[in-house]
TrEMBL record:
This is Ribonucleoside-diphosphate reductase subunit beta. The chain crosses the membrane at residues 172-197. It comes from Streptomyces composti. Provides the precursors necessary for DNA synthesis. Catalyzes the biosynthesis of deoxyribonucleotides from the corresponding ribonucleotides. Its EC number is 1.17.4.1. InterPro entries: Ferritin-like_SF (IPR009078), RNR-like (IPR012348), RNR_small (IPR033909), RNR_small_fam (IPR000358). Its cofactor is Fe cation. Binds 2 iron ions per subunit. Belongs to the ribonucleoside diphosphate reductase small chain family. Gene3D superfamilies: Ribonucleotide Reductase, subunit A. Tetramer of two alpha and two beta subunits. CDD domains: RNRR2.
Length: 342
């Protein structure tokens, strides 16, 4: 890949090249996001899953089915995200400040994968059950549908070496928006709702603890990606036309339907306080928030039906079931922006 020197610096964030110059800093906000992410270090070893084993034995068969499907999705979801980071985002976002953040994000995705690996080893002691969970994309239709959605909207950029044309940059934007708004901002937020539903009933405290930290990481990942979109909108406003708005709206609609198929699989005929209809309202509400944040018109007008998810909109989230605050930070010297709605 051509290296960009200080005398031939690109004009825009998506200009082809490989900018190396950190001084003078062109995108200091990306660098500050990297610094904030460093403060949020946590390890899987801090999550205590021992009490969850007893809780699992108390769950009804329908609830056990839900948990089995949920951890199967977790087993593959972050791997899709990590692959896209390496193969697409790092290659095309031409900012050394942004690449610092993306490097940190890749580390965090690896921690998430380790957490979900530990979760599966704890929740599914039978090796055959674990093998089936790791092969969920192949053998669980509702998870396969979500994966196919991801590949549909994201894979077309892999073959592009450089973003030379307007069409190339639009394809990259669709990849980034799918990555941030649909996968991290909708699929994972849907999964978090099931976890916090259990937590609201005093169950699966260890899962909730780890999810709190994953939630915080994913919120920061999404916010960074939206900042990249904002920067591109400022530098190349001609890319954000009616066609892009239609494509993004169609994408969010497809994501909601894929996640609803997953909800039907998980919830069956419905569980106390959790069913497909309430999940539909929640997903539509979240999708509208993502569209609004991206500068496009909302389409659903639904309200959040889950009061337990309102807890997730605050920066200092302390789970009363835990032995320590889940807003744990290393070397805190500032605040972390977690003002995205649930």
């Amino acid at each position: 890949m051509p290296v960009t020197t200080s005398t031939t610096r690109p004009q825009n964030l998506l200009d082809p090249g490989f900018e190396l110059t950190l001084r003078p800093m062109r995108y200091p906000d990306f660098y500050e996001r990297y610094r904030d992410a460093i403060k949020n270090t946590w390890t899987v070893e801090e999550v205590d899953l021992h009490s969850d084993v007893a809780d699992l034995a108390r769950l009804s068969p329908a609830e056990q089915h839900l948990i089995g499907r949920l951890v199967a999705f977790f087993a593959t979801g972050d791997s899709i995200v990590a692959n896209n980071l390496v193969l697409t985002l790092y290659k095309h976002i031409n900012s050394p400040e942004a690449r610092l953040y993306l490097s940190r994000q890749l580390f965090e995705e690896a921690v998430h994968v380790q957490f979900y690996l530990t979760l599966l080893d704890t929740y599914l002691p039978d090796p055959d059950d674990r093998a089936a969970a790791f092969a969920a994309v192949e053998n669980i239709p509702s998870i396969r549908e979500k994966a196919e959605f991801c590949f549909k909207w994201m894979d077309s950029v892999e073959e592009i070496d450089r973003l030379r044309t307007r069409a190339d940059r639009r394809r990259f934007l669709l990849n980034l928006i799918c990555f941030a708004a649909c996968i991290e901002g909708l699929f994972f937020y849907g999964a978090f709702a099931y976890v916090y539903w259990f937590r609201s009933r005093g169950l699966l405290h260890g899962l909730a603890t780890g999810t709190n930290w994953v939630f915080r990481d994913e919120t920061m990942h999404m916010s960074f990606a939206f900042d990249v979109v904002d920067t591109v909108r400022k530098e190349e406003p001609e890319l954000f036309d009616e066609e892009l708005g239609r494509q993004v709206t169609d994408m969010l609609r497809e994501a909601v339907e894929a996640e609803l198929q997953f909800a039907r699989d998980l919830c069956g005929d419905g569980l106390p306080g959790m069913n497909t209809e309430s999940m539909r309202q929640y997903l539509e509400c979240v999708a509208d928030q993502r569209l609004t944040r991206l500068g496009f018109a909302p389409v659903y007008g639904s309200e959040n039906p889950f009061s337990f998810m309102e807890l997730q909109g605050v920066q200092e989230l302390t789970n009363f079931f835990e032995r320590r605050p889940s807003a744990y930070q290393v070397a805190v010297e500032g605040t972390v922006d977690l003002d995205e709605d649930f």
